[in-house]
Amino acid sequence: MKKYLLLLTLMSNVCFASSVAEKYADHVLEMYTESLERAIQLDKDLKNFVQSPSQFTQDIAKESWINARESYGQTEAFRFYSGPIDSDEGPEGLLNAWPLDEYYIDYVVGAPNAGIINNVADFPIISKDLLIELNENDGEKNISTGYHAIEFLLWGQDMFAAGPGQRSFEDFIVGKTLNADRRGEYLLVVSELLLKDLRWLVESWEKGNSENYRAQFLALPSEKALQNIFKGIVFLSGDELSGERMYVAYDTRGQEDEHSCFSDMTHKDIEWNFQGVVNVLNATSLLSLPEINQSELSANITKRSNEILELIKTIPVPFDQAILDEDGRAVILKTIEEMEYLASDLSAASKRLNATVEY
Amino acid sequence: MKYFLLILFFSVEASMASAHLPGGKGTSYDFSPLAFSHPMVGTPRSQRRNFQVGNSFFRNPWVETPSSTPLRDGLGPVYNAVSCAACHIRDGRGPGLPDKAGKVLTSLLFRFKYMKSFTSFTDHPSYGGQLQPQGTSNIPSEGEAHVSFIDIKGKFADGEEYLLKKPIYKFVKLNFGVLDNKTSVSPRVAPHLVGVGLIDSISDKSILEYVDKDDANKDGISGRPNIVKSKVNLSRLVGRFGWRAEKSTLKEQNAAAFNGDIGITSVLNPVEDCPAVQDDCHSQIDEGHVELEERTLDRVTTYTKFLAVPARRNPTGLRILNGEKVFKKINCQSCHRPKFTTEFNGDQPLLSEQEIYPYSDFLLHDMGEELADVNDLGVEFFREWKTPPLWGLGLVGVVNKHQRLMHDGRARNFKEAILWHGGEAKNSRDMFINLSKKDREDLVEFLKDL
């Protein structure tokens, strides 16, 4: 009898865990689909802006960019286990490359003729193929596409302590500003590439395709799939977000070390990234797996995640000024610490689930 | 009797346990494509944060001046790559060479030595210390390196054939004149980085123990240290970083790579690598301004210092154990010295007195004519290479999706790498040729488990 019971428990564990993988795959697909939809709206608003540049159309495009970032930011919890986003063909670098070589794209203060946009002689036509080609020799030139390229072309350099960059819509009015037509073309080509990469991510996770990454992921042994899920949230919380995106700026006190430096939206990036971690926990219910269900560890993880979400909201805005202000620094450091503790807790949970991710 | 066996079993297990953990107690356990990128297990929190900051400056691209990111600008004027990670992809090893003739890959660079007299060598008067094939906007690059291959065919003793591809280098689009016959050219590929902090923690004395400059033990192998001055640690003399052990400390290795490869100056390397003949580049040199702040260099050094060595995957596998025996039988360990114990370091328990298994003696060995620099000018030093560590090599395939080895990536797999060995290693190579197919394959299995 006991034996059967054990077998039953084992079986239910297996089913439970595999359904975690499925729930995860559904969640990933949902988030990439939403990111794509919002990027499609952004593309429309960018076209509208380029066709009829005005303060109004520029503001709409900016709002649309922020809206698109909100979805994409939450997908960053799907990184760090060599899934589609990080695979060799994976578009992470093209979508989210940072820092941006703005000087390689367009004029900056002190260099009025800089960038591909103003280099008519070498680059007579701005096209998708050109930007792909310029990105091809990895490591030779800087990548000049993705969300932050669009951000730079909408907001411009952030030379202002109190707020974001102040690029004028007139930069896009043909005849009024040098190479305005090429600037518009560049913006739309980058947007087109963004859509292409997001489409590829959606396809990688789509249901009903036996060849795509989703099929591979669901065919993994359940502990392996679970380990990948944990890698995403442990490394985002404990290293990438708390370390690379927050502690680096805290440590260097450099205005540049905020990720959305042109739009001053870094505080939201942080919130969205962390929301991505919480989403994974919620969507997969992995804290309810039998080994840790209703344990103190699970309770701590839930409690701590909620506290971090609240803490993030208290970080003063803009982030590039908060890192210079004593009160701001204290909150930032506290948030970093809590994220590190959360990563330790998540690592402990992964060990109990036989899906060890060291932290 | 039974008890005796049990005791024997336990003692073998105990002595093996450490060899399974090549990087000491900080050894890591992720064998995925990110296997080379983790901090040592147990890295203290403050170090882990500095590791993150260092990673940021290692991984993210440097940009041209002026930019909105002054801490990260200063790329060039001439350079090889825009970031450390562009060549050390995922902290791993660059392939260096393409599969077919053509332009060499970003991860392969070329050092120059120029003969001033029979005994004195300097950087090249027009090109400096190395070829930088990229220039920032409006700055001409120095030129391009192309490769073609010559087939070298051979046979194992059992009749199985092999085919090596010998790279022949050609330099084109040279913007500052041809490379004349006084110039010796040394190709170097970006190696994987795991464990460099542990190597930095080996005492000079431990390395010098194995020196046999005049081959007193008559084994045909005469390792000698590259004695170099250190600017940051005056008591440190033995080089151990770089393909020719040119640097004795990790910090100096990092500063030199920033300078030569990315065009980023620091207090240790304040001058860009472009001689006066390169007007456009040279005129941008501003020795008063350092692009990489000291504390950032220290962060990057912390980053590299704590990069963990992954554990062995299957150290007790039967074929792998046989491979390990073959490794010893054909005398590989004479240069690929398995074990070191690092120096005591009260501040860094993860680096202190650790038993580590790099499989290198960090000494220079004559590796024969085939591996010598292009136009070696008859100089012995230009045929010598530091024994490279073997730890982590088994995961290069997973991390970097290629299996190229040797100083320029000419070997396409482990077998070819062994076959390329010459000079002092020729005896071992010849013994390899004479092994049975099974022993050859087991040896490769052992190397893949490191």
Please, could you describe this protein's structure?
The complex is a heterodimer of chains A (359) and B (450). Helix content of chain A is 64%, strand content 0%. In chain A, helix 2 packs parallel to helix 10. Chain A folds into two domains: 23-218, Up-down Bundle (A middle domain of Talin 1), CATH 1.20.1420; 220-359. Chain A has 359 residues and is an all-alpha fold. Chain A starts with a helix and ends in a 7-residue tail after the last helix. Chain A is built from 13 helices and no strands. Chain B has 450 residues and is of the alpha+beta class. Chain B has one domain (8-449). Chain B is 26% helix and 13% strand. Chain B contains twelve helices and twelve strands. Mean pLDDT of chain B is 93; it is low at 4-17. Chain A binds chain B through residues 80-82, 86, 88, 97-104, 108-111, 114, 137-143, 157-159, 231, 239, 242-244, 247-248, 251-252, 254, 256-257, 261-262, 336, 340, 356-358, and chain B through 28-30, 32-34, 38, 41, 45, 48-53, 55-56, 60-61, 63-72, 81-83, 86-87, 106-107, 133-134, 137, 296, 299, 401.
Most residues in contact, chain pair and counts:
A-B, 47 and 42 residues
Averaged pLDDT of chain B: 93
Number of strands of chain B: 12
| Gyration radius over CA of chain B | 22 Å
| Main beta-sheet annotation of chain A | none
The total count of helices of chain A amounts to 13
Going by helix content, strand content and strand pairing, the class of chain A is mainly alpha
Q: What's the mean pLDDT score of chain A?
A: 90
